[in-house]
Amino acid sequence: MNELNLTDVQGYVHDHIKEFHQTKLDGLNSLKLTSILSRKNPYLYKAKNMLTSEMIVRSCIDAHISSNEETIFGNWLEGLAIFINSKVYGGRKSGITGIDLEFDTNGCRYIVTIKSGPNWGNSSQINKMKEDFITAKRALRTSNSKLNIVAVNGCCYGRDNNPDKGDYYKYCGQSFWEMISGNENLYLDIIEPLGFEAKKNNDEYVTLLANMINRFTREFSDTFCKPSGEIDWEKLVQYNSGRESPKVTIH
Q: N or C end: fewer C-beta atoms under 10 angstroms in the chain?
C-alpha cells in the first residue's frame, strides 16, 4: 500500500474534468426534438396542464439532461476511483464482465462494481450484479483455488449503514472512497478540484441549452400546434404512441 498523494488526485481531476463537460456538450449537440418526444409521456404533459410549447420542450429536455448527466458523471467518477486505487493499491480496470475494479490488499482480492449512488437499481439489476460476482469469483479461482475474494458494490455518494449484504459488501460515500484509498477524508478532499474551470464550461453549456430550448420550441410549435396556437394533442399522441406515426417535418 502506498500513501495517496492528493496532488496526484488534483492533477487527474484538472486534466480529465474537461472530458465530463465535453461529453455533456456533445450529448446536447446531438439531441433531436423528435427523439426526445418519442421517449416521453404525452399523457403526463396533458395531465399537468402544460399549455405552451416551451413548457413541454423544457420538461422533455430537463428530464433527458437529469438522466444523462447522472450516467456521464458516474462513468467519470468510476475512472477517478480506478486511478486513485491504482496509486495506492496497484488496482486496475477489470476485464471481467460486470466488474469495474480489481485490487489486492490484506491477503484478499477485491472485485468492485462501481455505481454513482446507493439507489441505483431494482431487484433484477441487483440480482444480475450478484450473478456477475459469482461468475467473477469462479473465473478468478480457476487459476488460484485458494484466492480469498471480497465482492463490493461501491457507491460514490450516499450512505448505507448495513454494508454486509451476505454475498457482497456495499460501501457508499465516505466508506467507499476510504476503502479504495485508505484515506478516510478523501470524500471531502475530492470536492474542491471538481470545480476546476466549472464556470467557463457551464457558461458554454447554458448558452447552448438556451439556444436549443428556443429552437425546439419553434420546431414544436410549427409541428404540433394548430393555427390558433393551441397544442394539437391528438397529433402529438399519434406521433408518440400510434401504430403508425404521422409524417412530420421538423426544420
A: C
Q: CA 202, 79, 81, 165: dihedral to nearest 10 degrees?
A: 110
pLDDT at 197 over 80: no
What amino acid occupies position 245?
A: S
For 1, 177, 199, 222, the CA distances from 183, given in Å and listed in that order, are 12, 7, 29, 56
Number of structural domains in the chain: 2
Question: Do residues 99 and 68 both lie within one domain?
Answer: no
- pLDDT by residue (tens digit) across 89-138? 999 999 999 999 999 999 999 999 999 999 998 999 999 999 999 999 99
List own/partner pairs for 165-170 with CB under 8 A and 24 or more apart: 167/130, 167/133, 167/134, 168/129, 168/130, 168/133, 170/118
Domain boundary among the residues 170, 196, 222 is at 196
What cell does 86 get? 491504482
The residue segments making up the domain with residue 21 are 1-90+197-251
pLDDT of residue 187: 94
Task: Find cell 471480497 and name the residue.
Answer: 150
* 107 and 192, same domain (yes or no): yes
Rounded to an integer, what distance in angstroms lies between the CA atom of residue 153 and that of residue 114? Answer: 6
CA distances from 30 to 110, 179, 213, 250 (A): 38, 38, 14, 15
Please tell me the distance from the alpha carbon of residue 44 to that of residue 4, in angstroms, as a whole number. Answer: 49
State which of 151, 174, 196 marks the end of a domain: 196
In the chain, DSSP finds a helix count (H) and a strand count (E) of: 9, 5
